[in-house]
Amino acid sequence: MRIVIAEDDLLLREGVALLLRAEGLDVVATTDGPDTFLAAVDEHRPDVAIVDVRMPPTHTDEGIVAAVEARRRLPGLSVLVLSAYVEQAFATDLLSEGAKRLGYLLKERVGRVEQFLDALHRVADGGTAIDPEVVAQLLTRTRADSALERLSPREREVLALMAEGLGNSTIAERLVVTDGAVHKHIRRIFAKLDLSPTDRVDRRVTAVLRYLDDTRRD
Amino acid sequence: MRTDAGTGADAGSDPGADARSGPGAGAPRPSGGLRHALGRDVRTRGRMCLDALEHLVGGLGTAILALVGLLWVAAVALTCLVGVGLLLVPLTARGVHAVADRERARLSRWGPDVIGPARPPSGTRAVLTDPAVRRQVGWLAAHSTLGLAIGLVGVTLPFSAVRDVTFPLYWRLIPSGDAGYAPEFWAVHDWWGVLSVVLTGLGWIAVFVGFGPGLARLQAWPGRRLLAASHDTDLTLRVAELTATRAAALDAHAVELRRIERSLHDGTQNRLVAVSVLLGAARRAVARDPAAADAVLERAQDAAEQALAELRTVVRGILPPVLADRGLAGALTGLAANCGVPCRAEVDVPGRCAASVEATTYFVVAEALTNVSRHSGARQAAVTVRREGGRLLLRVEDDGHGGADDTRGSGLSGVRRRVEAHDGRLTLTSPPGGPTTLQVELPCGS
Class of A2-130 per CATH? Predict the structure, then answer.
């Protein structure tokens, strides 16, 4: 797995690179701004990009813009966005283009190495990794009259874990239930959100997106 | 007649009054309601007279200033006839305004606030047609003549009174006693003469007690009449200016919060995340290669120390703790001592200013000295701060190569915003080749 890192803070950039290299991952370039990042993407054609949201010159959403541009230049690039704080608009901006090969994590998650590597691999393999904090915020801000209200508390829990990008077996592990129980919950979620059983992966993504969309309109 | 509770409250309410009320204060307190009332009257009258004296002396001071101003205005008016003076008109208007500001501040201290008009315009034609300027010049004429005369009388009266009343104490010591000494208009040869001088002194006291407060009011009258902003145009301008600076204050506040948020998120938090990342890496390394883990742990500790240092910087940027500990003078001396080039600090600010003003002053000096160290190439710098009335005047100079420009988005534009938000003024003089002088004027707010 070839990785490019874009992070303007030197210490953090080198820290993440050190951590990933120690895990035997191939960090091909570390960059400190959107322009150098895009140049590195053009040059190295990496599999995964780890991008900080706030970068020079204005320190607002340069990372998001650069990530979207990088994906335009290099379709199939997996992007893991790191942010200092939860900004729902960024999450939904990113996900509106489709949740595949995308991750949005708080920076401090990097310190929990197993979970971070797990998220990184999931994103690299075409999945999604959304920070639990983002999901929790979305969950508390759900509108009362939304379709999500029809879900039971347990089903919302399952949907939240799906939104983080976890697979069925991991969800079962987290909730300490059997795989079968998770399956049943998910089927009921799909039914309540009126998603027909055509393509399982797309349904999952659609459920998550509907969930995010629903909270975004608040 | 006052009740006991009432007199008790009166006796305890104003300790300062006794100290100021002169002769009546030291006398044993008479018993009985009538004498109480009399004593109070004497005290009130005495206090009024001392106040009047203070006002007359202060008025004399501004009257002398006004006289100088009037002479200057006359000189400029004369040179205007040959054309040269026209160049000096805006400067003169500002000078008159400054003198009038003194009088306004003086009057505001002991009566209703005298709110001045906006600063005079900068164009010659605009100055000549500005009604506020004309009113101020009118005041200048009145105060430098009538005000000066009243001030002189007001100061002479108590002086004569003291001289005459104490005459018995020193008339024998006067060497020219044989020829007859005349503190008043007649010669004194014996005790009858001395008595007449003492009585005259008492007469002066009576005159001052009777007319002193009236004289002070008369002296203040032209100022109160002419120096307040006229009711229509001037105040709307002033309101517009205040509205603008208020908006700037809110804006500067938002900018300030944004700055704090940014330095916390992009500085301190990043350091802490780095600590967490390095600790995570170290934990993974412990199992694999303990020697490598130690190196990573050391970096983590470095990062934690950096986080602490950044946090301190952020906190200092909000409200420097050193201000609370050592006051403005100590804080600025500390800044000067830490400056990259030799720097001398002279701070003469009696009392404290509003916390926000002190913080702004500190911020301005810190920013200015950073610029001096980084960009000016100066060999030495100087910081002077002094207080003049309600304003704090700050000056930072260096002998560097100049060329500083606050319009090019440097730290200086932040300084200017912050100063203007406090209704202050910033002037930057930095010709290519130097030297650079930064002058800031801030209302003290206390």
Answer: alpha beta
Q: Which amino acid is at A181?
A: A
Residues of A with CB below 8 A from B277's CB?
12, 15-16, 19, 110-111
Cis peptide, bond prior to residue A57, ω within 30 of zero: yes
Interface pTM (ipTM) of the complex? 0.72
Whole-model pTM: value is 0.50
Q: Which two tokens stand for residue B57?
A: 């002396």
Residue from B259, B262, B271, B273 whose CB has the most chain A CBs within 10 Å, to mutate: B273
Contact B353, B444 (CB under 8 A): yes
CATH topology of domain B325-443: Heat Shock Protein 90 (3.30.565)
| One-letter amino acid for residue A112 of the chain | R
- Contact between B270 and A12 using a beta-carbon 8 Å cutoff: yes
* Tens digit of each residue's pLDDT (9 = 90 or more) over B284-297: 888 888 888 998 89
Q: Which fold has domain A136-216?
A: Arc Repressor Mutant, subunit A (1.10.10)
pLDDT, greater one: A28 or B402: A28
pLDDT per residue over B19-68, tens digit each? Answer: 344 344 444 444 556 777 777 788 888 888 888 888 888 888 889 988 99
Residues in chain B: 446
Query: What is the band of B18 on the pLDDT scale with cuts at 50, 70, 90?
Result: very low
> Domain boundaries in chain B?
57-226, 240-318, 325-443
